[in-house]
Write a structure and sequence with these properties.
Blueprint (H helix, E strand, L loop, with lengths): L5 H18 L16 H37 L14 H6 L7 H5 L1
């Protein structure tokens, strides 16, 4: 496995998330409740789809916050160290998720 630049990987993932979020606004729009135009089951399906789209959006925003925090840690020189205990985070863990703020021990607690 080749070493990648964590800052580059984080910035690429950030741009990817922002692009997907911009493109996925349709699913989060309010569901039309006009019973003459849409049947009850169709509305229920639309509401469920809307709820799933909103949850997906919430998770993307959470990931963006983690990425921004990791980029901030890179700038301050704290990247690669657990924010809880201060121990070094393993290179394999950072390669898997460059935005992870915790070492494996603190993450398991």
């Amino acid at each position: 496995m080749t070493e990648t630049d964590p800052k580059k990987a984080l910035l690429e993932r950030r741009e990817e998330l922002l692009s997907v979020m911009k493109a996925s606004t349709e699913g989060r729009r309010p569901v039309e409740l006009d019973q003459t135009r849409v049947g009850r089951l169709s509305r229920m399906d639309a509401l469920q789809g809307q709820a799933m789209a909103q949850e997906t959006e919430r998770r993307r925003k959470n990931e963006l916050q983690r990425i921004d925090a990791a980029l901030s840690r890179i700038e301050t020189g704290d990247y690669g160290y657990c924010v809880t205990c201060g121990e070094e985070i393993s290179a394999k863990r950072l390669a898997l998720d460059p935005s992870t703020p915790l070492c494996i021990d603190c993450a398991n607690r």
